[in-house]
Design goal:
Largest sheet: 5 strands, antiparallel
Radius of gyration: 17 Å
Distance between the termini: 15 Å
Strand content: 25-35%
Length: 203
């Protein structure tokens, strides 16, 4: 199993992206209301619940792993779903991928000066569909409906684990509009000497 040693946490303060994110969340909230996907339980804590922003709802803190070279552009311009599949494919559509398990996101993070950098993002899922099989050609239906949320069939994809009837060891969450997520923290860390992951065992 993976073992991490956190060496630093940076809070991302991004006023321009914040305004875009909040507007998009409000649009989804107005169009969707309280959204669910049948009996599928996310079992995640809504990071806005019980706050003055509870009117938005459906927002979750998730991990995003990527090459460090793209982190500056994410902080300045936001997540860019059009880059999906450049390195790791797009099994569940051409979007930006997140995880609720840090070990999953770590798979996609490279090492810089003996450290790694993972993003913790706030993600607005909106109306999600559950995928239990590959859907690589999937596109958000907002693209096909001129960004009219009221007419869109879904806003995000939750890829299910094998225990949930899907394919994965850990869930993946996919959004197709960069405004649906915003970086909140950069987590700087390294693998502990006792880490038992395959990469450390081979090192």
């Amino acid at each position: 199993s993976k073992k991490f040693d956190v060496v630093g946490i940076e809070k991302a303060v991004l006023p321009t992206l914040e305004g875009r994110f909040r507007r998009h969340c409000l649009e989804l909230a107005a169009a969707r209301g309280k959204t669910r996907s049948g009996d599928f339980a996310l079992n995640l804590n809504d990071c806005r619940a019980g706050t003055s922003d509870d009117v938005l709802g459906g927002q979750y803190l998730l991990y995003h792993g990527c090459q460090y070279e793209v982190v500056p552009s994410i902080l300045s311009e936001g997540f860019n779903p059009s880059r999906a599949g450049e390195r790791n494919g797009h099994m569940f559509g051409r979007g930006t991928y997140f995880a609720d398990v840090s070990a999953k996101a770590d798979t996609y993070v490279d090492t810089i000066d003996a450290r790694k950098c993972m993003i913790v993002a706030e993600v607005c899922l909106g109306r999600f569909i559950v995928s239990k099989s590959p859907m690589s050609g999937l596109k958000t239906s907002t693209e096909d409906n001129n960004h009219h949320h009221q007419n869109a069939a879904f806003d995000s994809v939750v890829a299910a684990t094998s225990e949930e009837g899907g394919l994965l060891d850990h869930r993946e969450y996919v959004v197709f509009d960069g405004a649906q997520a915003i970086p909140r923290y950069l987590i700087w860390y390294r693998h502990e000497a006792s880490c038992g992951c395959s990469r450390c065992q081979l090192a």
